[in-house]
Amino acid sequence: MTQFLPPNLLALFAPRDPIPFLPQLSKLPHEKHHNQPYCGIAPFIRHFEVRPPPSPGRLSSCVSVSQRREKIERRQTVMEDELKLWDPHNDPNAQGDAFKTLFVARVNYDTTESKLRREFEVYGPIKRIYIVYSKRTGKPRGYAFIEYEHERDMHCECTQSHTHTHTHTHTSECHPAV
C-alpha cells in the first residue's frame, strides 16, 4: 500500500541514520571526587560592593506606603461622612419585617424574580422578593431577600435547607402550602 504514496510522504517513513557511538566516560558525574567541598557564598562576599543603604526619600516603596496611608485616611473620612448620612429607617430598599424575611445566597445570575417566586411560593404566600443588583454595573450580585406574609412560612425547615433549585425535600414539620 505504501508504494502508492508520493515521494514526499515516503520520505517521512524512511529510516533515520544510526546513532553514533561514543566511548564511555572515565567516570560518571556523580562518581567524580571534587577537590574542594561545596560551600556557600561566604568566601565570595569580599567581591561584592559595599554601599550605604539608600536614603528613605529615594525609595519608591516609601512613597507608595505614604500614598496608601493617605488613601486609607481619605476613604475612612468618606465612610464616616456616609455613616452620618445613613438612615436605615428611611431607606426605600430596607422595607418589610425582618422576622418574615428569608435571605437566599448563591443565586444564579440568570435567575429572575418569577423563578424565585415559583420555587419558594410552595412554602407559603410571598409578600415581596428583592434581588440585589450592583449599583455600578446593574448586574445581579447573587443573593436575594424573600419576604413572606407569615413568619411561620419563613421558619419552615424546607426553606432553610432549600439547596437545589429543582428538587425539594419535605420534612414532617413542613409541608408545601396548598
Classify the helix fraction into a percent range: 25-40%
Low-confidence stretches: 164-175
Oligomeric assembly: single chain
The strand line-up of the biggest sheet is: 1-3-2
Coarse morphology: flat
Structural class: alpha+beta
Q: Enumerate how many helices there are, as a single number.
A: 5
Termini gap: 76 Å
Which radius of gyration do the C-alpha atoms yield?
A: 37 Å
The number of distinct β-strands equals: 3
Mean pLDDT: 80
Strand content: 5-15%
- Reading the helices and strands in chain order gives HHEHEEHH
Sheet with most strands: 3 strands, antiparallel
Keywords: Nucleus, Ribonucleoprotein, RNA-binding
Protein name: U1 small nuclear ribonucleoprotein 70 kDa
InterPro entries: Nucleotide-bd_a/b_plait_sf, RBD_domain_sf, RRM_dom, U1_U11-U12_snRNP_70-35kDa, U1snRNP70_N
Pfam family, one: RRM_1
Quick take:
With 178 residues, the protein is of the alpha+beta class.
Structural description of this entry:
By secondary structure, the protein is an alpha+beta fold. The chain has a domain at 96-136. Helix content is 26%, strand content 12%. The chain has helices at 7-10, 60-85, 113-120, 151-154, 157-160; strands at residues 101-104, 126-133, 140-148. The chain has a 3-stranded antiparallel beta sheet. It is flat and about 90 Å long. Mean pLDDT is 80; it is low at 164-175. Its main location: nucleus. This is U1 small nuclear ribonucleoprotein 70 kDa. It holds the Pfam family U1snRNP70_N.
